[in-house]
Design goal:
- The chain is mostly helical.
- Helices cover about 65% and strands about 0% of the residues.
């Protein structure tokens, strides 16, 4: 028995190698059950799907398989496969990723998030609404993954401010307090939990010991609210990403396929898609907020709040206000990124909104696309200065002669942009191109 278990562990260690070797053999009958060319194309599709699902190869490496297999199997020539990895749509998505890196680099997302939270309020249901609105807005222009990664640290810090440390709160009579010796601009400083104090003060016997049943109930409530906050962010990112073409990869794949099947069709672009999808996004965002807030007990039916609850909410609001003040006045670089972000959205929306003539009519028809607009704005980030220019510097010969630091550097872009997603998009487009060529899409 021990030898069997040891042998099974060894097999598990090389499971990816087994998948790599056995999958081509398992799907081999597909080559003989279908016409030769269609069977070869389907064989590549099934092979890539299995490798993607099992991650036997890295996802980006699997996306490169059409470059190897389509030419060797005679499905599609290399000169027609390779351009699929750098289509117009891929550059539009890459521009959105670089813009997300610039926003994260200068902490613009934190200013937007904290401002919306101050407007919506600090009652748990309102906090969830504020986080969902912020995440959905960021996800409209940035990728879902980037928006979620930006917002989750803020959510976690707010939860610590609202409920304290969950692990410490399990001990009876012990209040949680999160402190920090060094201020961290990526986290909101936390205070001791007044809500935990409520559960201790109002559920105490005459001998001073807390009621175990009520304390357990309070802990379950806190756990439900904690879960509600955490799932609200990725839900809002997924919903918000549907409003624009750059918000999520499936939208870009749709546009890529439309341009491939109907090359002369430009009915669906950034502006027309936004007018169609934004109202639906708002509707589903509100429904999602109501569902999460109700299911996780964030709404209260009491007209009058308890005094300690009011104090807890006021403390959380104070924490948010202090963190917002800690950001200080908007810096030149932060304002510049906000300006380019606004131009990024405005120019994409007004290029050809369909219901009114766009600015693209001043150029040759079909030459200027959404990718042209996005890359133009993003390029400016690499030479626009991050410090306010001073004319006195030219005449002050004692001033330090430091090189101008732009808003974004290529080194920073290489570190933050998920290049594997670009290859994933290209692999999908190459696969679709092969299926279209061999009529598998019919």
């Amino acid at each position: 028995m021990e030898k069997t278990v040891a042998f099974a562990k060894k097999i598990w260690c090389v499971k990816k190698q087994f998948v790599l070797l056995l999958t081509p053999l398992i799907f081999l009958p597909v080559l003989f059950l279908l016409p030769l060319k269609e069977g070869k194309c389907l064989y590549v599709v099934l092979l890539m799907a299995m490798y993607w699902c099992t991650e036997a190869l890295p996802l980006a490496v699997t996306s490169l398989l059409p470059v190897v297999l389509f030419p060797f199997l005679g499905v599609l020539s290399s000169s027609k496969v390779c351009p699929q990895y750098f289509l117009d749509t891929n550059f539009l998505f890459l521009s959105g990723l670089i813009m997300a890196s610039a926003i994260e680099e200068w902490n613009l997302h934190r200013r937007i998030a904290l401002k919306i939270l101050l407007i919506t309020g600090v009652q748990p249901a309102r906090l969830i609404l504020g986080m969902m609105l912020t995440t959905a807005f960021l996800s409209m222009w940035l990728s879902n993954t980037a928006s979620t990664a930006m917002m989750l640290p803020i959510v976690n810090a707010l939860l610590l401010s609202l409920f304290g440390n969950k692990e410490a709160s399990k001990e009876p009579g012990q209040l949680s307090e999160v402190t920090s010796d060094e201020p961290n601009q990526n986290k909101i400083c936390s205070v001791s939990s007044e809500i935990q104090q409520l559960s201790l003060e109002e559920t105490t016997f005459l001998n001073g010991r807390p009621d175990a049943a009520n304390k357990k109930k309070e802990g379950e409530y806190q756990k439900r609210v904690w879960k509600g906050f955490l799932i609200a962010v990725p839900y809002a990112a997924s919903i918000g990403g549907t409003a624009t073409l750059t918000g999520t990869a499936p939208n870009l794949i749709l546009i890529g396929q439309l341009k491939s099947v109907f090359p002369g069709c430009d009915v669906v672009n950034f502006g027309s898609w936004f007018l169609f999808a934004c109202p639906l996004m708002l509707l589903f965002l509100i429904l999602g907020w109501l569902w999460i807030a109700l299911f996780h007990g964030c709404f209260t039916l009491r007209v009058r709040k308890k005094k300690v609850e009011e104090e807890a909410e006021s403390r959380v609001k104070l924490v948010i206000q202090e963190d917002y003040k800690r950001l200080g006045p908007m810096q030149f670089a932060e304002g510049a990124v906000a300006f380019f972000f606004f131009m990024f959205a405005a120019l994409l929306f007004t290029r050809d909104p369909k219901f009114v003539p766009g600015w693209s009519k001043f150029f040759e028809k079909g030459y200027v696309t959404d990718a042209t607009t996005a890359v133009t704005i993003v390029t400016m980030l690499f030479f626009f200065p991050s410090q306010k220019p001073s004319f006195k510097w030219w005449f002050d010969f004692k001033a330090p002669n430091n090189p101008i630091k732009p808003l974004m550097s290529w080194k920073r872009t290489q570190e933050t942009v998920p290049w594997n997603i670009i290859l994933l998009l290209g692999g999908g487009f190459a696969m679709a191109r092969g299926c279209e060529r061999r009529k598998l899409n019919l």
